[in-house]
């Protein structure tokens, strides 16, 4: 019978054809809405924030865990980058020449630098994927953002000479922390004898960002 | 993969008519585009426009398929449901295979572009260190072509280091304002020098029939910047002019001699050798001079126009400069002051 064979090929109930396929268009909260339609937006946002927060904790205590790499996301880096760029904006809005680097400058340096480092590590034979590397480098900017906050607080009060020493120590510590944290994730994906070649551009990248933070002074 | 190509052929053997082949064999024929499944490997490079276009195509083809279904007749209607589901199974499998193939070819096209550069980054840290040291040691054998390594990792890292050192130098000279503009200038200067002068010397070498490739020239000039990095790193922190001149002659001179010897060893004839040697030496030495003085001076020029006489003493270092350098610096200063005035008036 012709149609008996057909029944073998027909889709039974447990092969999911609809509902499981997520189209990654737009924000992840839209994705979740597609499959969990009745969920309030607050739950969606909280879930994403929790994922981002978990990754922040991984950066603070850099162990060799693959959680940062496995489910990468670029929300954390974007948040950090925007925060840093806004804080480096400079105090006064009136005079456009004073203050510090413009928002676009910081943004471009961070993302362009991350792309260069990723390309470099891929060209040297790394096994990490493009967006995973962007994710790691972006999340490891967090110590520098914390240092920026501390620097701004220090600049709000205190004498000039002493504050520079404090800021120098804070920025140096956080920049070494960033480099060390990102190395813990990135260097695993390299052949063992080439780790130094990958670490050096990361060091330069965080050095430049640390330099921007250290030399920042809001216009009086 | 079981139904990838066979599924297309089997459709017409169905007694109830089946779907036409040309609907199924289209790449956008499935109702569901399984290529856009969420994958955490991070290698989906779809952009929005392409996805929208494909979705539109799918909608059109799905509408067409529905229209054709209605035409197959009523006797296929009951079996049509099962038939659709059976067909759907095969279509889905087919679409998965097509999607996988498409994604793989797209990824390959992206990575193939990177792979062009991959052999130039195939170095060990020991090799980089050795080449850095060798860039300061001129080799006197100019009658036989010298070996020049063609690698791009060392030169690129040196250019970025030079940018970082320039920025650091601007910090120690007390510049706080206009950081953004200066950063763009620093990056543009360093990369412009590396790429521009390499191209220019390669062009001259082509005219003078020298046996050197573009990659080797880029590599040679890139490693020649190591001397510049060292000199600038020292003199931005220790502000003695005599020290700078000594370092300029010794360190700059050594790295220039190394580059010149390598290029000359690959050229035949007195006049071509002289042309290449003179041009390369002049450009390389003058660039170091420019980096040391012009950045300080540009900074001071800008500070003059914007801040006026209230300047901290660190920026007012007394200098006794030779006449030529003073004239050059006055020209630069005047240009920058004009620029500052123009920008201020806007």
From TrEMBL, chain A:
Task: Tell me the ranges covered by the Yip1 domain, including all copies.
Answer: 61-212
Q: Which Pfam families match?
A: Yip1
The protein's location, in the record's own words, is: Golgi apparatus membrane; Membrane
Protein's membrane topology = Multi-pass membrane protein
Could you give one GO CC term from the UniProt record?
Golgi membrane
Q: Which UniProt keywords apply?
A: Membrane, Transmembrane, Transmembrane helix
Q: Where are the transmembrane segments?
A: 72-91, 103-124, 136-158, 164-186, 198-217
A GO BP term here is: endoplasmic reticulum to Golgi vesicle-mediated transport
What's the family?
Belongs to the YIP1 family.
Name under which the protein is recorded: Protein YIPF
Q: Which organism is it from?
A: Oncorhynchus kisutch
Automatic annotation (TrEMBL), chain B:
> Where is this chain compositionally biased, Acidic residues type?
58-74
Membrane-crossing ranges are 152-170, 182-205, 217-236, 242-262, 274-295
How is this protein situated with respect to the membrane? Multi-pass membrane protein
Query: Where does it reside?
Result: Cell membrane; Cytoplasm; Golgi apparatus, cis-Golgi network membrane
InterPro entries per UniProt: tRNA_Mod/Golgi_Maint (IPR051521)
Reported function? Involved in the maintenance of the Golgi structure. May play a role in hematopoiesis.
Q: What is this protein called?
A: Protein YIPF3
Give the source lineage, highest ranks first: Eukaryota, Metazoa, Chordata, Craniata, Vertebrata
């Amino acid at each position: 019978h012709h149609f008996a064979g057909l029944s073998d090929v027909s889709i039974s109930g447990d092969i999911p054809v609809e509902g499981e396929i997520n189209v990654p268009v737009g924000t992840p909260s839209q994705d979740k809405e597609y499959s969990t339609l009745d969920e309030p937006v607050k739950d969606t946002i909280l879930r994403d924030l929790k994922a981002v927060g978990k990754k922040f904790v991984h950066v603070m205590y850099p162990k060799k865990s693959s959680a940062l790499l496995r489910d990468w996301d670029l929300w954390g880096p974007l948040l950090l980058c925007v925060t840093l760029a806004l804080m480096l904006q400079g105090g006064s809005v009136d005079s456009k020449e004073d203050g510090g680097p413009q928002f676009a400058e910081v943004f471009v340096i961070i993302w362009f630098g991350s792309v260069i480092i990723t390309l470099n590590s891929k060209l040297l034979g790394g096994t990490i994927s493009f967006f995973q590397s962007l994710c790691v480098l972006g999340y490891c900017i967090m110590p520098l953002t914390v240092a920026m906050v501390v620097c701004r607080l220090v600049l709000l009060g205190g004498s000039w000479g002493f504050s520079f020493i404090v800021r120098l120590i804070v920025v140096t510590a956080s920049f070494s922390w960033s480099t060390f944290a990102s190395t813990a994730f990135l260097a695993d994906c390299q052949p063992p004898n080439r780790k130094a070649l990958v670490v050096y551009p990361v060091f330069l990248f965080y050095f430049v960002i640390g330099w921007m933070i250290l030399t920042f002074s809001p216009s009086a | 993969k079981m139904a990838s190509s066979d599924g297309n052929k089997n459709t017409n053997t169905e007694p109830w008519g089946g779907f036409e082949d040309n609907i199924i064999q289209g790449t956008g024929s499935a109702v569901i585009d399984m290529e856009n499944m969420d994958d955490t490997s991070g290698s989906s490079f779809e952009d929005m426009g392409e996805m929208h276009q494909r979705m539109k195509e799918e909608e059109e083809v799905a509408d067409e398929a529905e229209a054709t279904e209605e035409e197959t007749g009523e006797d296929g209607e009951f079996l049509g449901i099962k038939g659709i589901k059976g067909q759907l199974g095969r279509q889905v499998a087919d679409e998965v295979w097509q999607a996988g193939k498409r994604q793989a070819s797209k990824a390959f096209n992206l990575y193939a572009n990177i792979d062009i550069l991959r052999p130039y980054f195939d170095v060990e840290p020991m090799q980089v260190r050795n080449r850095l040291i060798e860039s300061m040691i001129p080799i006197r054998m100019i009658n036989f072509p010298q070996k020049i390594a063609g690698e791009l990792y060392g030169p690129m890292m040196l250019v970025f280091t030079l940018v970082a050192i320039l920025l650091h130098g601007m910090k120690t000279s007390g510049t706080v304002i206009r950081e953004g503009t200066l950063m763009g200038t620093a990056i543009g200067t360093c990369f412009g020098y590396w790429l521009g002068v390499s191209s220019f010397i390669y062009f001259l070498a082509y005219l003078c029939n020298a046996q050197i490739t573009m990659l080797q020239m880029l590599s040679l000039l890139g490693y020649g910047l190591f001397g510049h990095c060292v000199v600038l790193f020292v003199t931005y922190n220790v502000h003695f002019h005599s020290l700078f001149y000594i370092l300029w002659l010794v360190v700059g001179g050594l790295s220039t001699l190394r580059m010149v010897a390598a290029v000359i060893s690959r050229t035949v004839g007195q006049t071509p050798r002289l042309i290449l040697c003179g041009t390369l030496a002049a450009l390389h030495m003058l660039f170091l001079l420019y980096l040391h003085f012009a950045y300080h001076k540009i900074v001071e020029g800008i500070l003059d126009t914007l801040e006026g006489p209230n300047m901290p003493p660190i920026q007012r270092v007394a200098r006794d400069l030779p006449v030529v350098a003073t004239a050059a610096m006055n020209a630069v200063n005047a240009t920058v002051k004009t620029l500052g005035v123009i920008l201020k008036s806007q």
